[in-house]
Amino acid sequence: MDTKTTTEKTDEGTDASGTAEETAAVALDKKDTEPATAPIEADANADGDAAGDADRDDEDEEPAGEAAPAPAGIGGAAAAVVSAALGAVALTGTWTGKVVSERETLLGQIKTSGTGTPAQQISEIYGDAWHSTALVNGVFALIALLVAVLVLVLPGRPAWVRAVAVAGAVLGGLGLLLSVGTYFDLFLSLPTAGS
């Protein structure tokens, strides 16, 4: 009963702008009337709230962890790896380049069979095959370079993706340089008929 009275007094005191002494007296009366188990319940509630907060934090972290590998991130990583692979293929040669080279060799043999001069045979049989291989490898190198630059230009890529893309760009650039040099006979020229 005292609790009701003090509560009513407290409500009236706060509504009618009561003094600090009345508020302190009500607080002391409340402390005396509460059972001894109240602090234990408060501690249990605090522990329960802390556990609940930890559970909520874990729930909040899980969606953030799942949202991190977005499709754009996977695509960028795959593109970086593809650019590095294409750059390496451009330097070592491709099956497509070999097929095109053999085709050019066969066409050269057909064109010059029995009637071609030695210079014409060298050009048709070996030169065209050499240039077609350089052209195919150059196309692969250019694709590698373009894909790598695209990955590097797009923002928000992890460091390892950017590193692989840089490797793809370097390999593609080297492959393109070698292909252009081979196609225009800058590094080695075709042998002449007199030598």
Summarize the SSE layout with pairings:
Blueprint: H1 2-15, H2 20-33, H3 38-67, H4 71-92, H5 95-111, H6 118-153, H7 159-183
Write down the oligomeric state: single chain
Distance between the termini: 123 Å
- Helical content, roughly? over 70%
In terms of structural class, how would the helical and strand content be classed? mainly alpha
Uncertain segments are 4-17
Strand content: under 5%
Report the order of strands and helices: HHHHHHH
Mean pLDDT: 77
Beta-strand segment tally? 0
Choose one word for the global shape: elongated
Cα Rg: 40 Å
State the helix count: 7
Sheet having the most strands:
none
Folded structure, characterized:
- By secondary structure, the chain is mainly α.
- It has helices at 2-15, 20-33, 38-67, 71-92, 95-111, 118-153, 159-183.
- Helix 4 (71-92) packs antiparallel against helix 6 (118-153).
- The model is unreliable at 4-17 (pLDDT under 50).
